[in-house]
Amino acid sequence: MSTTKLFFAGSGGQGILLMGQMITYAAMLEDKAATFLPSYGPEMRGGTANCTVIVSDAPVGCPLIYEADAVVVMNLPSLIKFEPMVKPGGLLLINTAIVNQPAKRSDIRVLEIPVNDIAMDLGNPKVGNMVMLGALVRATNVVSEDAIRQVMHKTFTGEKAKLNDANMQAFAYYKQYA
Amino acid sequence: MTEKVLMKGNEAFAEAAIRGGARFYFGYPITPQSEIPEYLSRELPRRGGTFLQAESELGAVNMAYGAAAAGGDVFLSSSSPGIALMQEGMSFLCSSEVPVVILNVSRGGPGIGGIQPGQADYFQATRGGGNGDYKLIVFAPASVQEAIDLIYEAVPLANAWQNPVFILADGILGQMMEPVRLPEPRPFLEEKDIRAKKPWALTGYGGDDSGRRIVKSLRMQPDELEAHVEKLFRKYERAQKELCRYESVGIEDADIVFVAFGTVSRIARESIDLLAAQGIKAGLIRPISLWPFPYAAFDALGKKTKLVISAELSMGQLIEDVKLGVNGRYPVALIHRTGGMLPTSVEVADKARQLYQDIIKG
């Protein structure tokens, strides 16, 4: 039985919840059990956003976690607050385009990815979260790349469908973590 | 069977109510369930139903009373303090035998409390926050799928029992997303069919010789009121025989038996695995019906059991029913958090092990 616990954090508007939802959706397409739990509270635009995703071969227990196999931080406050949440030997993915401090811990694996800079280079500043999602999926294999591709085509329809190429290109960017 | 979809709990609850046949919704926004009125304000009018945002929860429950008395299938939802405001109406609905489906996506209390999940409305739901002798039929789901199934079933169940059916969920279930399968929609009950399906409903005097229909909770003559309450309680007695539901996991030879509902039952399952790794066998009784409470579930506990633990998000409410079910046969202890806090599975396992070792040492 394998269970993967993921945590995503950043500021509102960075596509934090979307990353979590896409992993959950992909897990469902692969017939796995999955839960997605967003933080909720007196939030505001530009404030903090975070979510928890659990993907498992067995039914998921508590959807709330205190320790994650992988944590994605998209801004500095999230690094400070959630670095301790990575379990020893786990993975921390840092958006170094915005976060200008290194991780403190040495008992975890750290991937530093300047996702906003990469997105700008790719010609679309909006796709930073997809660069991060690509790195996460390759580094953890929590779901398959193909499942994420299917999710994109099912999620982004109508007006949003024209973003699919840019999203896929961003998602495919970090090949070396395969 | 329908295709699997990924849905947020609150939206899934709302969709399940529509598919179950609830054509009317009255409510007032409150966190953590505001996605329910939001979803229904969009979907119900589109599908031939009515969404009405009331001026308050007090307004909502009484609009529900009126619409349901006229034969409509009604869904009501709110969260803890809002549900508190509806208690008077629930007493009226039970006394008048008017069926409504009511959902509480509960949060921390007392008072306005907080917006994180809680289970401190257990007494409110099972003992009644309204006045007088009455019972709600109460179910507690532990997953988004189970909530969908219970809400879908609650619409015909409320009609069959002519009693409100109450679903006690919590903020986590409302806010989380899980893959689910939605049931096939039932057609809404049309106005022309109400008289045949609900002969007690206020459909007007004219048209046939079926006589006057009266829906009321006022009975000034004490003997008449006593007879009415006794009639209600004959129904409740039948409900206790027919509606008890629970799930039990590995209780026969368990050293420790947890009793937990909703989100806490999911935490307890993880604690069972943690305890197993330490050589302690733990089991779980998960009440699905909170009223009627499945007291008989405790009769399956064996000689090996040393301790029964009520795990809950309150200062200890479920534990009273646990003690009634255990009936002195085993020691009963409480593991709890409140105010919107959740215990971790490690915390629950550690406390359970400590309590267990204390008992073994004597």
From the N-terminal CA to the C-terminal CA of chain A, the straight-line distance is 23 Å
Structurally, the number of domains of chain B stands at 2
Report the helical percentage of chain A: 25-40%
CATH class of the largest domain in chain B: Alpha Beta
Oligomerization category of the chains in this entry = heterodimer
The share of residues in extended strands of chain A comes to 25-35%
How many β strands of chain B by DSSP? 14
Largest sheet descriptor of chain B = 7 strands, mixed
Q: Per CATH, which architecture of chain A?
A: 3-Layer(aba) Sandwich
* Name of the CATH superfamily of the largest domain in chain B: Thiamin diphosphate (ThDP)-binding fold, Pyr/PP domains
Average pLDDT number of chain A: 93
Low-confidence stretches of chain A: none
Provide the structure class of chain A: alpha/beta
The CATH topology of chain A is given as Pyruvate-ferredoxin Oxidoreductase, domain 3
Low-confidence stretches of chain B: none
Helix content of chain B: 40-55%
Strand order of the largest sheet of chain A: 2-3-1-4-5-6
Main sheet of chain A, how many strands, which sense, barrel? 6 strands, mixed
Whole-number mean pLDDT of chain B: 96
Chain pair with largest interface:
A-B, 21 and 22 residues
Account of the 3D structure:
The complex is a heterodimer of chains A (178) and B (362). By secondary structure, chain A is α/β, with parallel strands linked by helices. Helices cover 34% and strands 25% of the residues of chain A. In chain A, strands 2-3-1-4-5-6 form a 6-stranded mixed beta sheet, with helices on both faces. In chain A, helix 3 crosses helix 4 and helix 4 (128-140) packs across helix 6. Chain B is of the alpha/beta class and 362 residues long. A 7-stranded mixed beta sheet of chain B has the order 3-2-4-5-7-6-12, sandwiched between helices. Chain B has a 5-stranded mixed beta sheet with strand order 9-11-10-13-14, sandwiched between helices. In chain B, strands 1-8 form a two-stranded antiparallel sheet. Chain B starts with a strand and ends with a helix. The interface between A and B is medium-sized, with 21 and 22 residues.
